[in-house]
Write a structure and sequence with these properties.
Layout lengths: L1 E2 L2 H15 L4 H4 L13 E6 L2 E6 H7 L12 E6 L5 E3 L4 H4 L6 E4 L1 H8 L9 E4 L8 E6 L4 E6 L8
Parallel strand pairs: 6-8
Antiparallel strand pairs: 1-2, 2-3, 3-4, 4-5, 6-7, 8-9
Amino acid sequence: MRPLTDTETQTLFSKLANYTGSSLSHLVAPPASSSLDPSDRYVFRLHQSRVYYVRLSLASFATSVSRDRLLSLGTCLGKFTKTGKFRLHITALDVIAPHARYKVWIKPNGEMPFLYGGNVVKAHVGRWSEDCPEHQGVVVYNMSDTPLVRLDSVILDTWA
C-alpha cells in the first residue's frame, strides 16, 4: 500500500470532481467543525491498482501487514485500468453522494426498472438539480434519499 503519485492523484481528482465539483476539498480536508482530530485526516492509498479512502491512522497501522496478506482497507473508490484511466466502483457511492453537485430523485414506481437496466422515463423522475450540464456526473437517489447509482448525464430531446 502506497500513496498515489502525482499523475494518479490528478486522474483520481478529475474523476471525483466530475461528481462533487468544488466540494472535493471536503474529502481531503474535512471541515473545521468536524469532530475528527485534524491530524487524523482521510487519505487515498493505492493497493493492487485499487484506490482506497482511509483514515491516516488506519493506513499507518496497515504498513505492518505484508502486501500479499492485505486484502482491503477502508472504502474502495475504484481502480486504475492498465491504460491509466480510473473507474469508480459502486462502493465509492457512500463517499461521493453527500458531496454530489447534481442529483436526480427517482419515484418508487421507476426504481426497479431503472435498477434492472432500463432508461429513466420522464414520468419516473421525482425531482432533479437545476442546470445540470451534459456529460456531468450525477448521483441517482430514490425518494427517501438513498443513493442508488452514479452515472454521467446525457441530455436528450423531449421527443427522444
